[in-house]
Amino acid sequence: MPKIETDNLALRRGLFFPTAEIYAGAPSGFYDYGPYGCTIRRKILELWRKELVQKEGFVEIYGRQILPEAVFKASGHLESFADPIIQCKKCGSWYRADSLIAEKTGKIVPESLPLKEMDAIVKESKLDCSKCRGKDFSETKKFNMMMKVDVGAMGQNVCYLRPETCQTIFLDFARIYKTNRLSLPCGIAQAGTSFRNEISPRQGLLREREIGQMEIEIFFDSDKINDVEKFSQIENEKLNLFLLKDKMVSKISAKDAVSKKIVSGQLIAYFLARVQQFYQKLGIPLESMRFRELEDTARAFYARETWDFEVETDLGWIELMACNYRTDFDLKGHSKESKQDLSVVDNFGKKVLPHVFELSAGIDRSFYVAIDLAFRNEKRGPEERIFLKLPSQICPYVSGIFPLVKKDGLFEKAYSIFEELSSENFEVFFDEKGSIGKRYSRMDEIGVPFAITVDYDSMNDGTVTLRDRDSLEQKRVKISALSEIFRKLLNGRTTFDKI
Questions:
Q1: Which one, of 360, 443, 343, lies nearest residue 188 by Cα?
Q2: CATH number assigned to the domain covering 82-143
Q3: Which CATH number is associated with domain 397-498?
Q4: Residue closest to 447 by CA, chosen among 468, 425, 474, 420
Q5: What is the pTM of this model?
Q6: How many helices and strands (H and E) does the chain possess?
Q7: Is the dihedral of CA 311, 317, 319, 322 positive or negative?
Q8: pLDDT digits (tens, 9 = 90+) for 454-467
């Protein structure tokens, strides 16, 4: 279950909360974001675009969420996108068999384990129902998690809500490759929503039915997987790899991961390093990350090689991104089903059906883990101080701006600073309600790094008090210098103690 402190803060400040919460019968697995949470989530997406899309010269598309049945026949989802489920015969509750086994015994079993073997484990372990404690379960069966949608006046067009955002990328690949004059290797990105009919979503943002995803599909000639121009930039980057043979994290350079054939080639190692760098910028410590190698039975049906990017939290290791080597599985499947040739011609006149390496990240999971790891609860004598130590790139605002009181021109002076900084594209927040201490606390709890207080001295000497969230240090600075100070702080050209 999600950490109670983080959940309480999210509800108190409206970061995120259950959809349709005023209705008792609303289904679980759906969440809304309030203004602060929405801003943080947007900035995570903006950082992803900057670091993993724009810097790599990739392109981004926006595809629709409803696709025809034929798409999922070609992709294999109609046949293979299913979870093993069992039902308590006493109270009728449904469970994912693999999850119930893990919860009750601590034993991790792959969801692709044959159903009869799961039944044997359930029986031998004498598992009981979490709701009624009954011990009699149905036989395990497969449940397809896709959500069906009938389109048209008579529902004549059978469609599905997409269970992953990438299929649109594969469908659009040939057109995008041609109209944008791409060449291999190339990447097509998409951020959007996918839908999975989870059996019993009970982990907040970590297991939803409506899922935010930010995905990149990297198309390349498999014969040139070791021909990556920028590989030298990261070849000495240490990758935290959790290898099946060792059952532990090993720090292995990208260069060694390739030469020792731990990964399939330079392209794989390069993007694993870039993923690591991206999540560091979200404020996640390097020592809390790992890429877990998945065995054959645990990989998705379309993957030849999978590295799950996971982060360690108080809740254990949480998967944030699946890094899948999908080969030509998808393009080959769609070519066959649609009877359209999805191969392309490279710059040397060679006809290629590209292979694909996928970086499929959960937006909401990344949001939750960033919030969870940024959570601080400091004891200061009898007082406790709760704040989010978020990196500046994803803070909802650069600064709060507070008039000490609403009279004697302080309100107007503070608001003029708010307007000036806003006009220079700084995201700032104006608040005149409550004591100055409570205003500081509100900003701390949503992760705002700085606070500007306008007092009576400000009216005389043109200075304000600038407060740092993390150290609680305060300095008097010129109003005219605020823009330059913030630029330097946000760009890492200075630190608060050196202002």
A1: 360
A2: 3.30.40.230
A3: 3.40.50.800
A4: 468
A5: 0.90
A6: 16, 26
A7: positive
A8: 999 999 999 999 99
